[in-house]
């Protein structure tokens, strides 16, 4: 009787140990299955930046943002553009960006010649994770010709008959391209103009005196 009871207890204990081991193994599997794998990813918005029309030599900018769309923090370490007429500013690198967060920066277009201009912007993390390519585009036009005369009113004072009174005026090119002065005229005598031989070319930002 005692031996039978002892055998039964031993069998029960062995069964409990096997069950406990199986239970622990199952829990271990659950813990392993619930572990999260790091998945770094970044995205730039918008994915297409069109600057429209811009005057040659005049910089225009648009706001762009980069978001951490992964589940782990990233360090953005590089911003590259394929065309030097586009540039990036306001993005201090390396930029630490937690998961789910975003940061804004500026993309600028500063054309140096007329015509259609395109480029590609790409951001990358310190571990080599890159954003999708962002298409950049814009159309550059030459600034219109614009001339000014200063002063707009000129008094020569009192002049004795037979004598000549003189004053000066400045012609300036305040446009974005060279202009050619082909004719200078006055509406009636006894006024005349001297000091500039026509045709005369005035470059942007320069002036000539008559």
Describe it.
With 210 residues, this protein is α+β, with helices and mostly antiparallel strands. Helices cover 15% and strands 38% of the residues. It has 2 domains: 42-141, Immunoglobulins (Immunoglobulin-like, Sandwich); 144-155 and 166-210. The strands form 4 sheets. The protein has a 5-stranded mixed β-sheet, with no helix packed on it. A 4-stranded antiparallel β-sheet has the order 1-3-7-5, with no helix packed on it. The protein has a 3-stranded antiparallel β-sheet with strand order 10-11-14, with no helix packed on it. The chain has one helix spanning 2-33, and strands spanning 42-45, 48-55, 60-68, 74-81, 86-89, 95-97, 102-109, 115-125, 134-141, 147-150, 170-173, 179-181, 200-202, 207-209.
Side by side, the strands of the main sheet go 2-9-8-4-6
By helix and strand content, what is the structural category? alpha+beta
Q: Report the top-level CATH class of the largest domain.
A: Mainly Beta
Poorly predicted runs of 5 or more residues: 14-19, 29-33
The residue-averaged pLDDT reads 83
Strand/helix succession: HEEEEEEEEEEEEEE
Characterize the overall form. Answer: rod-shaped
Percent of residues in helices comes to 10-25%
Number of separate helices: 1
**Biggest β-sheet strands, sense, barrel:** 5 strands, mixed
**Beta strand count:** 14
Enter the CATH topology name of the largest domain. Answer: Immunoglobulin-like
Instruction: Say which CATH homologous superfamily of the largest domain is assigned.
Output: Immunoglobulins
How large is the radius of gyration?
A: 39 Å
Beta-strand content: 35-45%
Per CATH, the architecture of the largest domain is: Sandwich
Number of self-contained structural domains: 2
In angstroms, what separates the terminal alpha carbons?
135 Å
